[in-house]
Design brief:
Layout: E1 14-18, E2 21-24, H1 25-46, H2 63-85, H3 88-93, H4 108-125, H5 130-154, H6 184-206, H7 215-232, H8 250-269
Antiparallel strand pairs: 1-2
Helix pairs in contact: 1-2, 1-5, 2-4, 4-5, 5-6, 5-7, 6-7, 7-8
Length: 278
């Protein structure tokens, strides 16, 4: 069986160093995702043909503020989500550890809720239509997900379930053991990142989806939920989590409300098309 496995690439977790400062792949992935997403949002805002009545929901120069709010929302929401959704007993017993973000521990579902709060605050501060702000952020988010999952792979973390497929890998983490496993991080990078980005891009640039406020956000929310739930079937579950029962995992459980909310958003958005441009 081991003869059919691929060797895990020997990737240094440190991307590069500048003097005494070391830049890790994980931090670099977050930075690339945010900056490329920021660039993509600015391009969508500048293309007035994409928007209802030819008016973008907010000025291009406000994208810098949105990036700041989103960064805070993702980091704070992601950390608090991990604390509350995955290991509350430990962190309530050791509250100081909540702030030890350098030790790892971020939840996408928590980051999603944190970013939703940040978007709502930004929209209110700038008198921008909430659903359209959600749309542009949703369209750019798969970029960050793609790089984030690649960073998970580079760090040899969040590995998959044991497998005999030809591309299975033995991960260097001692907790993974000498067992070939699915490179589930790459599955997630493909579905949650690349495929979801292409789908949102096609809807926006080929189907004028931004003229239906909430449609792109709904597709992203439901699409991510489906992609994450599917990939969870190949990802090693958290055995200590109360939701882990058979094929059910915490990731699947927390994705189900996203799927339902996304489908509802798509349903509501279908009747919102700008009639002046129909």
């Amino acid at each position: 069986m081991l003869l059919l496995t691929l060797p895990f690439p020997n990737i240094d977790p440190i991307a590069f160093s500048i003097g005494p400062v070391s830049i890790k792949w994980y931090g670099l992935a977050y930075a690339c995702g945010l900056l490329l997403g920021w660039t993509y949002i600015k391009r969508m805002l500048a293309n007035l043909r994409l928007w209802p009545s030819g008016h973008a929901p907010f000025a291009v120069d406000k994208t810098d503020d949105l990036l700041l709010y989103m960064t805070l929302g993702v980091v704070l929401g992601g950390r608090l989500g991990y604390v509350l959704f995955y290991n509350p007993a430990f962190y309530f017993a050791h509250p100081v550890e909540i702030f030890s973000v350098w030790k790892g521990g971020m939840s996408f579902h928590g980051g999603f809720l944190g970013s939703a709060a940040a978007i709502a605050y930004f929209a209110r501060q700038n008198s921008a239509p909430l659903l359209s702000v959600f749309d542009v952020v949703a369209a750019a988010t798969p970029i960050g997900l793609f790089f984030g999952r690649l960073a998970n792979f580079a760090n040899a973390e969040l590995w998959g379930r044991p497998s005999t497929v030809a591309w299975a890998m033995v991960f260097p983490d001692r907790d993974a053991g000498p067992v070939p496993r699915h490179p589930s991080q790459l599955y997630e990078a493909t579905l949650e990142g690349a495929v979801l980005f292409v789908l949102c891009w096609w809807l926006i640039h080929k189907r004028d989806a931004l003229k239906n406020p909430g449609l792109v956000a709904g597709v992203f929310t439901a699409g991510y939920g489906c992609a994450r739930a599917f990939c969870e079937l190949f990802r090693e579950p958290d055995a200590a989590h109360w939701a882990t029962k058979g094929l059910m995992t915490a990731g699947i459980l927390y994705s189900l409300p996203m799927i339902a909310a996304g489908v509802f958003m798509v349903y509501r958005a279908r009747g919102r098309q700008d009639t002046t441009l129909a």
